[in-house]
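pasting for ref
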Amino acid sequence: MNEGPGYREDRGSEAGRTIDTDSAFLRVESISKTYPARDKQPVEAIKDISFSLSKGEFASILGPSGCGKSTLLLIIAGLIAPTSGQMIFREPDSTSETDFGIVFQDPVLFPWRDVQANVELPGEIARLDREERSAKARQLIALVGLQGFERKYPYELSGGMQQRVSIARALMLSPSLLLMDEPFGALDAMTREQMNLELQKISLATGATVVFVTHSITEAAFLSDRVMVMTGRPATLKDVVTIDTPRPRGIDMIASGHFSDHVARLRRLLNARSDPT
């Protein structure tokens, strides 16, 4: 990751911190973002958000539509700068300055490139050896369940298949951090359920830390180790809910009483009115 506004690399422990810097993979500290407006009434999108993530953790950001979830994700990615606060990223084994992959709701595939070429693109930009990136792309295409579709073009694929290509592309450079902005929001319910199972498999296979934005309570509870529940705008972090069911999880888990308890708690948090500020 590139060092820039709101971001720095942690090279050691810091006095006075309550977070264990030896285990925290990413720390988000007091992040706020305010957008200027033409009417001179700035829009406060997110306010004073802090949390930490461990290596290999799957964390969801859950909140109502328009509350600033995507803004927070883009700040973590370094694509926009926070108004205040900082991210502290620590990955001792990484030498890459762009050690993250990102997946959006729209797959954003190049229509003139086939599946293989779309997945290879980050490797081309990074100037990886042709044979190396071709082999890595084939491996990832198989991982996301598209073996045999390497020479198909985006228009020949379903929405779910296109999103699988997008995920494979995001993993091309073996990122330690995978950022996902409602990647299954445009899919039908059955396809979305299947993609949740596939994503769980992929996250466990790669060991990447995943930050997943969603407004689906069930999806967040099924996929996550922890769910960060946001308030309405300006978004603050209302609570962090631990989902203590071991992964991998089968789809039958959704019918269990324990899972229903997690869903009910998340729903109560989302429906509860924020304290006045």
